[in-house]
Amino acid sequence: MPLISVSLRSGKSDAYKQAIFDGLYRALRETFSVPEDDQFMTITEHGEADFRYGATYGGINRSDDVIFVQISAMNTRTVDQKKELYRRIVELLGDAPGIRADDLFINLVEGARENWSLGRGLAQYA
Q1: Residue 24 neighbours by CB distance under 10 Å
Q2: DSSP per residue, 16-77
Q3: Residue 11: left (phi > 0), alpha (psi -120 to 50), or beta?
Q4: 39, 55, 99, 119: least CB-packed within 10 angstroms?
Q5: 67-74, strands of its sheet edge to edge
Q6: pLDDT digits (tens, 9 = 90+) for 73-124
């Protein structure tokens, strides 16, 4: 039951943003085995004054097309699954909408199963 927040600079087309959603969902289905229709994602666009990044931090050469992908998920995946998720996201978003590997900043935030409520005020996974 991942929850995904994507941040990027303003100005991308709807098709570009939908391709991001599609690629992220596919990567999660393939590597984290998320169920069909488990799609909870947002994209937030930022103007130049509201978006900052280290252009070369960590030996990576980022451009103004960098996107931040934060994935909140239950702490049930192995290190190998996480590595495969990162690799697959880069591969799929490189294909469509054409994001460079250096422009994908991915952060996985994990929590316990009881920290999730899918609605109705219930802790469905507790």
Answers
A1: 23
A2: HHHHHHHHHHHHHHHHS-PPTT---EEEEEE-GGG----SSGGG----TT-EEEEEEEES--
A3: left
A4: 119
A5: 41-46, 3-9, 67-74, 104-111
A6: 999 999 999 999 999 999 999 999 999 999 999 999 999 989 988 999 998 8
Q: Which residues contact 95 (CB under 8 A, 6 or more apart)?
A: 23
pLDDT category of residue 1 using cuts at 50, 70 and 90: confident
Q: How far is CA 91 from CA 27, 49, 51, 65, in A?
A: 9, 30, 24, 16
Round to the nearest angstrom and report the end-to-end CA distance of the chain. Answer: 13
Closest to 31 measured CA to CA, from 72, 92, 88: 88
